[in-house]
Structure formats: C-alpha cells, structure tokens
Design a protein that fits this description.
The chain is an alpha/beta fold and 308 residues long. The protein folds into 2 domains: 28-119, Leucine Dehydrogenase, chain A, domain 1 (Rossmann fold, 3-Layer(aba) Sandwich), CATH 3.40.50; 134-283, 3-Layer(aba) Sandwich (Rossmann fold), CATH 3.40.50.720. It has 10 helices and 11 strands. α2 (43-59) links the parallel β2 and β3. It is globular, with a radius of gyration of 19 Å. The structure holds nicotinamide-adenine-dinucleotide.
Length: 308
C-alpha cells in the first residue's frame, strides 16, 4: 500500500516554483502578486489564509491580505472585488470561502475576473474547462490530479467514484477526470490525466457502498468523518481523502484534531494507495494555488516560462 504523500509532493512543487521565481528575480523581473480577501473571523479560514500566505512567502510570491469585518455589505465587497479586477499590480486574487450568510458566494464568484481567478472557481473558469478551453483549473481538483500524476496512477478507462458534488471539489473534479486529457493553462501542468468513467455520488445516493466497491479510484469530499469504510473499497483501489473535519481530542492542546472522511486505519489495509489527512490533499491544494498564480504571472510577464 502506498501513502500518497501530499506534503512531500507539494514541497517539491513549491521548490520548482521557487527556483523559477528566483531565476526571474535574478533577471530583474518583478515578482508575482496574490491578494487574499477574507471576510470575518472564521478560525478555520484564518488558518487556511495564514498557511497560504506562508507558502507564498516561501516561493517568492508577494501576498497581500485584505481583511474585512463580517458586517461588510455584499455591495461593498463586490466593489472591492471590482477594484482588484482592475488593479494591475495584482496578478491574481482569491476570496476565502465560506462567506457570511448575507453575502452571495455566487455573486462574488461571478464578479471575479476569470483571468485573475487563481482558485479556478468562477463560472467562467469552470465553464471554459467544461468546453476544453484554456482555463485556470480549480485548485483542489488540480492538486489531486498532480498527486495522481506524481504517483503514476492512471485514470484513463478507470472507474472513478467522486463522493460530494460541491462547486469547489466534487463537480470540477468529476469534469477534470472525465475530460479528454485536460487542457488547462499551458504552464500549469502537463495534465495528462482524464479519460476516466466518473460516477458522482452525494447525500441522496442510494447504496453508496455498492457503487464504491466498483471503483478503481474513490475521491471523497463529503465532510463526514469515517464515511468511507474498508467494506466499501475494492482491494487495491486508490483512495483520495479530501475531507477536513475537526473532531474533539482532549489529548491535543487545541482540544481537537483534524481528520478526513475516510476510516484511514482500516481502509489503508485494503486500498492500494491512500492519501492521509493531514498531509494529503490539503498541501496539494495550496501548491496548486501557487502554481495558478505563477501561471497567470507567466502570461502577464511574457517570455518567462515555468519549466516543469
Ligand atoms: P460541501 O461541504 O459543500 O458538500 C458536501 C458534499 O458531500 C455534498 O455534495 C453532499 O451531497 C455530499 N455528502 C454529504 N454527506 C454525504 C454522505 N453521507 N454520503 C454521500 N455524500 C454526502 O463540500 P466541499 O466544500 O467540497 O467540502 C467537502 C469536504 O472537503 C469538507 O470536509 C471540506 O472541509 C473539505 N475540503 C478540503 C479541501 C482541501 O484542500 N483538502 C478543499 C475543499 C474542501
């Protein structure tokens, strides 16, 4: 059984980006800039943003955090997003989700200029991907794709079961895998994966276990600790755990620990390959975000290409 070590693969990806940006700097080229918009004080979001900022600093991406209080109006936030769309000093930006309930995520995502959408979540980015046009890929699915590529786990002709149908993971993941070898921005990834037969499951799916047992690859993004058990996995199948759940842990100084959606202890005895939580998809998502920023920058500063 292989543990799909997202921490290691992400570190290698960051090292390549750092090397590329160091060479740009040596030539006197400006560095890329990412802006991160955060609304309110959701502790999990604050942790994710801090991790993204640290990763940016490590590779040489300039990063600006733009924080608003939770009572900012939707209209004010949309105005700020339009300013970022126009700001030539910013290569790309993200709006950390989730947003407070009075702000429509759909309106926010629709307002972000897709050419700066380094999370790859706007309707334009997703729609362009659906049609096979060059697009910035969604960060989490793109990170999963890189992990599968790194461990040379083929998807062509395989049956992939995706559990979860969210706009940020389940749907773009399913699209990416079912597509003919995926056409993302040229410098983002070699992107050889695709050509899979994909089944998308969700909370209303009947007999999830039977469907999962037919899968060569299972990707779980449901937010339910312990959802995928050993009985649901075909021997030798690949299991990717996207879930991040806080569960109480009196032994931890924080009082909680992070677990995925997979019963790792038992599933790892049946699966051929499995990604852990933490240390699996999480770091890959951040590495993909960085890669998207550098890809957009690469187009804004022509003549410097990422060599992957
Ligand atoms: P979500 O929370 O918006 O929705 C959950 C999805 O799972 C829904 O489509 C629902 O139908 C499905 N689902 C819920 N319970 C189910 C069940 N019992 N059986 C089958 N399907 C079920 O989805 P999301 O935003 O994609 O988040 C899913 C999980 O992935 C969360 O734990 C989230 O924290 C995590 N996540 C991790 C990363 C990362 O980088 N590692 C990125 C995004 C999300």
């Amino acid at each position: 059984m292989i543990v799909l070590d997202g921490k290691k693969v992400a570190a290698e990806k960051r090292a390549k980006l750092r090397e590329f940006l160091t060479s740009c700097k040596a030539k006197g080229v400006r560095m890329p800039k990412l802006a991160i918009v955060i609304v309110g004080h959701n502790p999990a979001s604050e942790t994710y943003v801090a991790n993204k900022m640290k990763a940016c600093a490590e590779v040489g991406i300039e990063v600006e955090k733009i924080a608003f209080e939770a009572d900012i109006t939707e209209r004010q936030l949309l105005t700020e997003i339009r300013k970022l769309n126009r700001d030539k000093s910013v290569d790309g930006f993200i709006v950390q989700l989730p947003l407070p309930e009075h702000i429509s995520e759909a309106k926010v995502l629709t307002t972000i200029d897709y050419r700066k959408d380094v999370d790859g979540l706007t309707p334009m980015s997703i729609g362009r991907s659906v049609q096979g046009l060059p697009a910035i890929p969604s960060a989490t699915p793109s990170g999963i794709r890189t992990l599968l590529e790194y461990y040379q786990i083929p998807t062509a002709g395989k049956h992939v079961v995706v559990i979860g149908r969210s706009n940020i993971v389940g749907k773009p993941m399913a699209l990416m895998l079912m597509q003919r070898p995926y056409l993302s921005l040229p410098s983002v990834s070699a992107a050889a994966l695709g050509d899979a037969t994909v089944t998308v499951c969700h909370s209303k799916t009947q007999d999830l276990a039977a469907i999962c047992r037919t899968a060569d690859i299972i990707i779980v993004a449901a937010g339910c600790p312990g959802l995928l058990t050993a009985e649901m996995v075909k021997p030798g199948a690949t299991v990717i755990d996207v879930g991040i759940n806080r569960v109480e842990d009196p032994a931890s100084p924080r009082g909680y620990k992070l677990v995925g959606d997979v019963d790792f202890e038992h599933v790892s005895q049946v699966a051929g390959a499995i990604s852990p939580v933490p240390g699996g998809v999480g770091p890959m998502t951040i590495a993909s975000l960085l890669s998207n920023v550098v890809a957009v920058y690469d187009m804004n500063v022509p003549g410097y290409k990422v060599s992957e």
